[in-house]
Model the fold of this input.
Amino acid sequence: MSPKPSFPLPGLLAACSIAASAVGGPAQPNVIVILADDLGAHELGVYGHPTHQTPHLDELARGGIYFDTAYATPVCHPSRHALMTGQYPHHNGVFHFPNRAGGPPVENEGDDNIAAHLTFGRLFQQAGYATAMAGKWQLSGELPGLVRETGFDEYAIWAYDHNLPAGQKHTGGREPHSGRTSRYWHPSIVQNGNYRPTTIDDYGPDLFADFLIDFSNRSRTEEKKPFFLYYSMALTHEPYYPTPDSLSSPADKFTRSETNWRANVEYMDKLIGRIVTALEASGQRENTLIVFMGDNGTARHGKGATTELGARVPLIINGPGLVQAQGRSPELADITDILPTICEVAGIPLPPGHPIDGISLAPYLRGETHSLREWIYSPLGGRRTVRTKRWLLENNTPWRFGQLYDCGDSRDGTGYRDVTNDTNTAVQNARRQLREIMASLPVPDVAPDDPRMIDREKPHYVPRDQRRGLNSPVIVDIAEGRAALTIFPPVDGQPQGFTLIPETEASVRDPVAIPTVVRMAHRDGKIAGVLHAAGGADLTEDLVQAARTLVAARAGEFGFAGTVEVFTLMAVETADQALSSP
Done:
């Protein structure tokens, strides 16, 4: 699916620039869009986290608006495309990472090349704004020109080896577990096309924030322009290293640990506070709109799963004189709404005839309306999550309806009632409504055994589903049937409910759900045939055909929660044999 525009793009942008100039001038507000990496809504104090201290974001939320139910996609690549274009994947063509199940082929330049799309950077740049971005770029394409092609005058980004200028070698730190250039201590940074040398005492998130603060000051004093900043944060993505505030010894800078997670969240909040303080010091705070959002659910706590846990992220919007302080909002919003919202606030017209899936939240921010969307949407590959104010549908595919929940008035995952098998009138009407919504939101028809669903590279973990409890079964597709794996309490010091699956136990259920215990055997790590590669399926009447299996539940390079791989070591012919297995 190619997002080729139906208009000459340069001419369109010129027209937008002319139109914007008529409403431009010093009164135009500054706009900052901040995208946190791998941060679910429940991680912030204002969203109810019991221990994380996030005072700066909490203050922005209470002094502006924070949406209880806001969705991104479950992983970063399609979320960033949706954010920058205001489009769902059926319009921008990016349902997943390149060459992942349902994602664009690597060779498909039309879909995955963000420079082929109309982005918020280009709209603001053509409207006369000084534009800059910093942090994690993430998207496909060749640097250094790509960031500027998407509408940013200046940038400072974490650079992989292949992002470095020709002939340049990274002389700084690397992440020991992956060998990648570092984004945190002694980081690899390309700034405006040039490699920026750093030292072991440099912390990437500090450098990115300071770059944007400096740019905002220069836009005011030198260019006399309003600014548009896109801060794509490195925090809070793994690896979880100590921050400058939590570091106990210089030798620990590249020591990754789950115990650093809280420090990472709180340092992210500190950087937001640093930016707000700088705006106040320069006299620009009163005319600056700040939008803060996560790109997907927290790693190993929903990320990668087409469930609300994978989609629900914080969305905080604050701007003195621009946003009426309302605090908590029960209204629905999603990541495609950001582009039309910030454009309306800035007085930038959207191009006629160009598809934008998001809606502008600006009237709601001003207090002019009290109702927004009827539904929000979060796709990944061939799977979808759709939410209305009352009903939630998870793990929908073209070949399976998924799990349906009656949420009542709840917005945070508590008190939801599974009504997948209910037949009452209200549930049937909800099914009909959701099918009508999904008919307008096509996704690729990805088979459950598509080999691209498999990630063989990362440690073997099963993330727990927080809504369903620690020891609840994780249901997984297999090629000829269904199986259920039970997540046991944490082992080997894993603090967040992960269980190493090889050489442990799992439940295998027959068609009438009679449980049995099969001891899993690890045969020298060899793969003896893939039975399935997708998580989140329902139990069906199919007969389970595999008893002795090697189970490798992999978090995946991008934290695909709920994606489980089952490899057969020997098959059995009947459920009775499965029940009698040791």
User: Anything to note?
Assistant: The mean pLDDT is 75.
